[in-house]
Automatic annotation (TrEMBL):
Spans through the membrane: none
Naturally occurring in which organism (per UniProt): Entamoeba invadens IP1
Annotated protein name in UniProt: Leucine rich repeat containing protein BspA family protein
Cited InterPro entries: LRR_5 (IPR026906), LRR_dom_sf (IPR032675), Surface_bspA-like (IPR053139)
PANTHER family: IG-LIKE DOMAIN-CONTAINING PROTEIN, SURFACE ANTIGEN
Pfam families documented for this protein: LRR_5 (PF13306)
Length: 471
């Protein structure tokens, strides 16, 4: 205390939260005796009983709607669903004499209608929100005093074509422009740091958008079904792209992901039919489930070595994807990861991979051969189902089961591989699951090692010659 002068103690006391703290401070030592007299505003809510402790107050701060206003009544707009009414604040409080202040500053949230109704009074509102009801009364031009937008503020405003976001706004709220089918231009200031859920969902006429460098977060379904969007310039401060961010943006053709992004969420680019090229930065460590599901034009893709996992159905139905290199950091190729990649003819699988998920390469019609590294111990159900051009497969020696269990080349795994003519089954295999090679019409014969003690139902085509290999 001895090192704090009276001025700096006044600054510190501004963080007190009760009048008792202020009173007690003046008993600490003489240099703090007149601390409360130095305040020309109230740093805490006050009443007609405590205002005497701040004798020089000129500006009254109201932190909550029902703080004492000393006879300086005003009205606040109250919304109840689609209805609204005006409430007179502190109507029931009795003050013997109205106290006049140089200015009154209100910090609690009010809508723009409240600001308009009290425009003749000496009161300044610091936390003004523009609501959906406000848009019906005051139109689509957002006033400069607005600090935030209500959720679904402009939802389904089909007449809205262009809008400028004022510089005080820090967030585009959830569902803010959802269903604004004629919105074609929007100016977003650098004050905005985040986009709310579904904020541009179904803005079918918005063809491009510039995300300012201040934005660090893009969350769920921000541009969902944003059918006209063809290009996106993203902030280099964005850390993550959340679930469904660009889902259904059928005209989006190219995206560069900033180096600040560390994760790409589930379904992020799902259904982006025109997306032909995407650059994933080396900062990204995870690609979520269904991330590029249905990106039928995606033909070029480089997976950086920073990726640790490929999610479920990550590249499912990427029918134009012809080849892909999987980095050595990947241990699991998850369920349906490349299912339906009908043009995929070549894939390099590193020795870091230990398992293939269910239906992993299901329907990869152009895949003619695959080398399964010795690190793989598990291959999921129907992994190569329908790979009609697959003619050669080498099974590593550490696979112990071709069945439905832990280390398996599971049931119907090669079902429908009509060009598969050769397969080597190692002596480590002890069981072959149901319908594993059913439909492999080119498989003339197969040698089964003596280690195999169980063959599942309809395991091989009826014409395939089964040769039992002796020890």
């Amino acid at each position: 205390m001895s090192k704090l002068d009276s001025y700096h103690m006044m600054i510190v006391s501004g963080y007190f939260n009760t009048i008792k703290n202020f009173i007690n401070l003046e008993f600490v030592c003489k240099k703090f005796n007149d601390n409360m007299k130095k305040f020309h505003f109230n740093p805490i809510p006050i009443t007609k009983f405590t205002i005497k402790h701040l004798p020089n107050i000129e500006t009254l701060h109201l932190w909550k709607k029902y703080n004492e206003n000393f006879g300086n009544g005003f009205i606040v707009n109250v919304e109840d669903g689609d209805y609204e009414y005006y409430e007179e604040v502190n109507k029931r409080k009795s003050v013997t004499e109205k106290k006049v202040f140089y200015q009154i500053i209100a910090w609690f949230e009010v809508d723009y209608g409240t600001v308009v109704k009290n425009s003749s009074l000496n009161i300044k509102f610091k936390n003004v929100i523009y609501t959906k009801n406000n848009t019906k009364v005051y139109g689509f031009k957002i006033p400069q005093c607005i600090g935030s937008l209500q959720d679904n503020c402009f939802e389904k405003c089909e007449k809205l074509k262009s809008i400028i976001i004022p510089p005080k706004i820090r967030s585009i709220s959830s569902g803010c422009f959802d269903g604004c089918c004629n919105l074609s231009n929007i100016e977003i200031p650098t004050s905005v740091i985040s986009f709310g859920n579904f904020c541009f969902c179904k803005c079918s006429n918005l063809s491009n958008i510039v995300i300012p460098p201040s934005v660090s977060f893009i969350g769920d379904n921000r541009f969902d079904k944003y059918s006209s969007l063809s290009s996106v310039l993203m902030s280099w401060e964005i850390k993550s792209m959340e679930r469904g961010c660009f889902t259904g943006c059928i005209n989006l053709n190219s995206v560069t992901i900033p180096s600040s992004v560390t994760s790409i969420g589930d379904c992020c680019f799902s259904g982006c039919l025109s997306l032909s090229n995407i650059e994933i930065s080396t900062s990204v460590t995870s690609i979520g489930d269904f991330c590029f599901n249905g990106c039928s034009s995606l033909s070029i893709l480089t997976i950086p070595s920073s990726i640790l996992k490929l999610g479920n159905s990550c590249f499912c139905k990427c029918s134009s994807l012809k080849n892909i290199n999987i980095p050595s950091t990947i241990e699991l190729i998850d369920d349906k990861c490349f299912s339906g990649c009908s043009s995929l003819s070549s894939i390099v699988i590193p020795t870091s991979v230990t398992s293939f998920g269910y239906y992993c390469f299901d329907g990869c019609l152009s895949l003619s051969n695959i080398l399964i590294p010795t690190s793989v111990t598990s291959i999921g159900d129907e992994c190569f189902n329908g790979c009609k051009n697959l003619s050669s497969v080498t099974i590593p020696s550490n696979i112990t089961l071709i069945s439905n269990y832990c280390f398996n080349l599971c049931r119907r795994c090669f079902d429908g591989c009509c060009n598969l003519s050769n397969i080597e089954i190692p002596s480590s295999v002890t069981s072959i699951g149901d319908e594993c090679f059913n439909g492999c019409s080119s498989l003339g014969s197969v040698t089964i090692p003596s280690s195999v003690t169980f063959n599942g139902d309809n395991c091989f085509p009826t014409h395939t010659a089964i040769i039992q290999k002796s020890n």
